[in-house]
Structure formats: C-alpha cells, structure tokens
Amino acid sequence: MTTVSLTVNGQSVTKDIDPRTLLVQLLREHLRLTGTHVGCDTSQCGACVVHVNGVSVKSCTMLAAQCEGAFVTTIEGIAEGGRLHPMQEAFREHHGLQCGYCTPGMIMSAIDIVNRKGTALDEATVRHELEGNICRCTGYHNIVKAVIAGAEAMGGGMRQAAE
Amino acid sequence: MYAFEFHRPTSLRQAANLLAKAEDGRVLAGGQSLLPMMKLRLASPGTVIDLGGVPGMTGIERKGRSLVIGAMTRHAEVENSPVVKEAIPALAHLVSVLGDPAVRNRGTIGGSLANNDPSADYPAACLALGATIVTNRRRIAADEFFQGVFTTALEEGEIIVKVSFPVPSRAGYEKFRHPASRFALAGVFVAKRGGEVRVAVTGAGDSGVFRWEAAETALQGRFVPKSLDGLKPSTDGMNSDIHADAAYRAHLVAVMARRAVEKALRR
C-alpha cells in the first residue's frame, strides 16, 4: 500500500491505495466520482480526460500515486454554484452528444483547448485538437459546433449574444 | 497490471540507488508508454520508481551551439517552447505530431528515448541531429544509444538526465502517421550542419530507428529534394505488418525524405 494526498475539485483527499491504482480508478471507485468514464482503457479514446495541475491528461494512463500533491479537476468540478460551466451549457445547447459516453472527456479536453488556444477557435483547429477524443456515435459535427460556441462563451461572447 | 512496489524518490541519487537495489525495477517518467505496457502485461516490473518528485530534471536551455532538454520535460513544453522553435523548429514540429494533446501533457523526452519504440519520433531527431544522451553516469552519442527494437545502450541502474542537440543549419521532419495510433508508419528526420547531412528513419525499419546512408550521400552533394530522385531504401530490413508491407514502407520513406528536405529548405 502507498498513501497519496491530492486535491480533487477543491477538496483535500488522502487515501491508502494499492500502487497500481490508476487515477481514473481512484476517482471512480474510491471517490465515487463516476462522471469520468473509461472507454478504451488504452489512452486512445479520451473518455477519461481530467485536468491535473491545470492541463488535460488521460486518467487511465496515470497512476494515482503519481498525483501526490496534485490538483485534479473532473467533470463534476467545473460547474459553479449550480450553474453549468459555459462549455457544458454549449454542449447542451448545440446537442454536442448522442449517447453521452464520451462527453465528460470531450468537455474537459475542450476547456483545455480554450486554455491553450484562446476563445476564438475555428473549426479546423477544434477538429485537430480533439484528435485524442473519440466519439463512436460519430457525432463530431455538433461537438465541434459546441466547442466553438463554448469557447466564445468562456470569453464572454454568449452574454453579448444574449443581450 | 501486476502488483509492484512504488517509490517516489526526491533526488536523482536516491532514484539511482533504488533502481540499483531493486530486482526488476523500472523508472517511470511520463508513463505514456510504460503504463500501457504494464496494463497489457507486456511489462511487469517488481518495482516502479517515479521520477515525478525529482527536482532539476526538466527545462529547456540554449547553451552555445546546443539545445539542452531535461529528461523529464513534457512533450507539450517542447512543442510550445520559443527556445526550441527558434533553435530547431523541426524538433518543435516533431513533438506537435506525436500522440495527442493529453498524451503530450504527460509524455517526456527521456521516457521516449529510454523506451526506444521502433515507431517513436524522438529517436529519429536524436539520430539525425547527432544528439548526446546524458545519463547519471556518462554521455552517450545517439549513434551508440539506439541498439534495436526497445533496446538502448542504457545499463542497469542508468537514468537519462538530459539530452543535448547540436543546433543544425537546416532540419526537417515528415511523418506518415497511422491514423489511429498516431505512431509513424514511416518518419524521416533530415538535418544539415556544416557540410554534414544526416537522415534518420523511424517506424519503417524492423530493428528500429536507422540512418539512411544513401540519402545522406546524395544530399551531401546538393541539399535539395531533387538529389533524392530515384532513390528508395531497400525493402530488406523494412518492417512488414497489417498496416503496411515492406515495399510500401520503403516507398513512404522515400516520399517522407523528400518532403522533409523541402520543409528544411522552407525556413
């Protein structure tokens, strides 16, 4: 057993774990944060994407023990005060999902794209940047629309549009 | 994956001691190759030594005529580094077409080199640029470092600390990616420094990254794509699998080499 202390969605967590526990297992099975999904379990599909210290990672390909002292944000941690995050809202508005399995990873990757590339995104950039997230409903068209709109909203664009 | 003992040392010396003591120990850098292999039970180390807590192993620095990158530097940092883009833009490009954004946020240069996957990108850059791999014990020239599929000159208890790349006058990397895995079906890195031209090929050879000497000789005459006209590597020693047979890979190498030279000249 090994002990790991980290911050998950703003809350301090200390757990005794088997060293082979993956970050996604710690989140889902130990902390019951089941919003993060396991799709392929081979770091291809991106359903398990969370943020570690502010950047996107595939939580199926990181040991929980590697997260000592880290700040982890999952899909459960991005809404504020009962209001969806602008990117979540955009996915709802643009129907950026069909079955919804890939959606948590899509949204966490989308926020990471905005953090790196800014709030004015074009379609080609979004499609390229989402290459590590796979939707087997093949619903990419609306996902791309949602990411572009969500990015704009994160920059304050949605409020302008509403006014 | 199978059970293992986990250590998170806080100095390089401590990491090396743990590695020397451990029976069947493996160093964990970014984990983007080792962890998938452990999950598939292709690797089952008894001890895993995480370098994540060792200070001083990251960073990118221009030192005179060389670019020095710490072994634990993440791919995303290399991809976005103004220092790398200025010194060796081909290297920044190479990293930008490796894996996907989330993988690049974790994966490291040291991990990639120590693993020496026959389809990995970094080995091609190291070999073509004539890099020096610096470990906790010695300095190893790229020409000696890569010794076959998943095999390197690293000895028991040896840990990569940094990599030093001589800055070339021109360099280019072109890769034909497998669309699902994003690994190279064939990737060619060309580099020109002074009168010397080096051409390194990854993804294609059945014993890992290799130098294509005929192309080097041709480009030494004149460093233009036309110098490669009619040139194609032998299919002997080319990898053949369900994704591409040897003849197709040889063809891809020739095409990627021309494109890499075009790219190198565009700067």
Mean pLDDT of chain B: 96
Discrete helix count of chain B:
11
CATH domain class of the largest domain in chain A: Mainly Alpha
The protein's oligomeric status is heterodimer
Q: What is the helix fraction of residues of chain B, given as a range?
A: 25-40%
Provide the number of structural domains of chain B.
Answer: 2
Distance between the termini of chain B: 46 Å
Instruction: Please write the CATH class name of the largest domain in chain B.
Output: Alpha Beta
Distance, first to last CA of chain A: 56 Å
In total, the number of strands of chain A is 5
User: Could you report the average pLDDT of chain A, rounded to the nearest whole number?
Assistant: 94
Search tags:
heterodimer; A: 163 residues; alpha+beta; Ubiquitin-like (UB roll); DNA polymerase, domain 1; 2 domains; five-stranded mixed β-sheet; 6 helices; globular; disordered C terminus; B: 267 residues; Uridine Diphospho-n-acetylenolpyruvylglucosamine Reductase, domain 2; Uridine Diphospho-n-acetylenolpyruvylglucosamine Reductase, domain 3; five-stranded antiparallel β-sheet; four-stranded antiparallel β-sheet; 33% helix; 23% strand
Write the layout of secondary structure elements.
The complex is a heterodimer of chains A (163) and B (267).
Chain A: E1 2-8, E2 11-17, H1 23-30, E3 49-52, E4 55-58, E5 71-73, H2 86-93, H3 103-117, H4 123-129, H5 140-154, H6 157-162
Parallel strand pairs in A: 1-5
Antiparallel strand pairs in A: 1-2, 3-4, 3-5
Helix pairs in contact in A: 2-5, 3-5
Chain B: E1 5-7, H1 12-21, E2 25-28, H2 34-39, E3 47-50, E4 60-63, E5 66-70, H3 75-80, H4 82-87, H5 89-96, H6 101-104, H7 109-115, H8 122-129, E6 132-135, E7 139-141, H9 142-145, E8 160-166, E9 170-177, E10 184-193, E11 196-202, E12 210-211, H10 213-221, H11 246-266
Parallel strand pairs in B: 1-3, 2-3
Antiparallel strand pairs in B: 4-5, 5-8, 6-7, 6-8, 9-10, 10-11, 11-12
